[in-house]
Design a protein that fits this description.
By secondary structure, the protein is mostly beta strands. It has one domain. The protein has no helices and nine strands. It has strands spanning about 1-10, 20-25, 35, 50-55, 55-60, 65, 70-75, 85-90, 95-105. The strands form two sheets. A seven-stranded antiparallel beta sheet has the order 5-4-8-2-3-7-6, with no helix packed on it. A two-stranded antiparallel ribbon has the order 1-9. A hairpin with a 4-residue loop joins strand 6 and strand 7.
Length: about 120
């Protein structure tokens, strides 16, 4: 993987998670991947439950949450008129580093394991 610009963000240990309620989301082109619209709510506290609502009704299955980035990924495409909101708590993050003209080489070491 290669890119031009990158950044590393870290959660502030001295800041308590900030609760948010019924935050709007923005869908991707196929209406399966929804991201919280407010950038301040995009890194979710893993200790706080996240509630997903579609048109005001709580949904408890058929999706996966991605706390880093604030995504709700549905198994099936949602109706074009559907309003998807999320409630939970956001971590406060600061940029801890940045870089440019970078690349990543992923290698996997395989080792035998006995049980």
């Amino acid at each position: 993987m290669a890119g031009k610009v990158g950044a590393v963000y870290a959660s502030r240990a001295d800041a308590a998670p900030v609760p948010f309620t019924n935050e709007a989301t923005t869908p991707d082109a196929v209406r399966k991947r929804y991201q919280v619209t407010d950038p301040d709510c995009r890194y979710w506290d893993p200790e706080t439950p996240v509630t997903v609502r579609v048109d005001g009704d709580i949904v408890s299955a058929g999706f996966t949450l991605e706390g880093a980035g604030g995504f709700d990924v549905f198994d099936e495409a949602q109706d074009p008129e559907a309003e998807v909101t999320v409630s939970g708590a956001a971590l406060t993050v600061d940029q801890a580093g940045g870089f440019f003209n970078w690349s990543i080489d992923a290698e996997v070491d395989e080792e035998d394991a006995t049980t």
